[in-house]
Amino acid sequence: MEVVVLPDADAIASVAAEVITGLLSDKPAAVLGLATGSSPLGVYRQLIERHRAGEVSFAAAKAFLLDEYVGLPADHAQRYRSVIRDVFEQYVDFAPDAVRGPDGNATDLPTECARYEAAIVAAGGVDVQLLGIGTDGHVGFNEPGSSLSSRTRVKTLTDQTRADNARFFPTADDVPRHVLTQGLGTITDARHPVLVATGAGKAAAVQAMVEGPVSAFCPASVLQLHPHVTVLLDEDAASALALADYYRETYAHKPAWQGL
Ligand code: GLP
């Protein structure tokens, strides 16, 4: 796990966008894993700017969303499929149907989850997976207690996550209780997970993910088992890390040939 401590959210977005533009330059038909939440918004803004500048094209790429609420009406602005369209997809040149998410309105949710897993495999697997982290250590919507080898399935949100996400809904009661999410096994099948986190509110979850035990109690800690993970943090999100100075020194002296 490579931990990179950067000055602010713009610097994080810039490094993450560089990883994705570099991937698409080497492999135009790459498969991207897209996350929702506020953390990746700066990355999407940078990618849109680079696309407008003619520096990157998504025309041959595919993308898969991490997760989705169950039961939100098709036209609801907070459906993650709608959010990704509104903040990113509509501004770049993805082909029609190149971006997919699990369907939280499917009549048979377990079948939909299996179908989604099969679609990711059929596309060749995810190359770069963008991730945020919840204050309880969740990635996607894999709440504490999630099997470290889980696949896409229905999960029940914790009260903490529903409270965290209440800012996007009229009241906390309007946050759906059930979701579909790629499992931790699905997420760690991605060839290069890139997790972004900012702010002191994420410091405890980040510390548990990076320096705590690998445990279902902090689902993001499963990333410790992955051979190629990049964690991009601002100073506040990195503030509880015991080895923060070591991570800074490592990145400052990283051999230029190594890349992220
Ligand atoms: C939601 C999403 C996660 C995201 C998390 C953190 O629960 N399902 O993918 O990482 O929120 O969101 P934010 O980046 O807004 O803090």
SSE layout and pairing:
Elements: E1 2-6, H1 9-26, E2 31-34, H2 41-52, E3 62-65, E4 67-69, H3 80-87, E5 99-100, H4 109-122, E6 128-131, E7 153-156, H5 159-164, E8 178-181, H6 184-187, E9 192-197, H7 203-211, E10 230-234, H8 244-252
Parallel strand pairs: 1-10, 2-3, 2-6, 3-5, 6-9, 9-10
Antiparallel strand pairs: 4-8, 7-8
Helix pairs in contact: 1-2
The chain binds 2-amino-2-deoxy-6-O-phosphono-alpha-D-glucopyranose (GLP).
Structure report:
This protein has one domain (2-252): 3-Layer(aba) Sandwich (Rossmann fold). The N and C termini lie close together (11 Å). The strands form two sheets. It has a seven-stranded parallel beta sheet with strand order 1-10-9-6-2-3-5. It has a three-stranded antiparallel beta sheet with strand order 4-8-7. The longest helix is centred in the N-terminal third of the chain and has 18 residues, at 9-26. With 260 residues, the protein is α/β, with parallel strands linked by helices. It has helices at residues 9-26, 41-52, 80-87, 109-122, 159-164, 184-187, 203-211, 244-252, and strands spanning 2-6, 31-34, 62-65, 67-69, 99-100, 128-131, 153-156, 178-181, 192-197, 230-234. α1 crosses α2. β9, α7 (203-211) and β10 form a beta-alpha-beta unit. The mean pLDDT is 97.
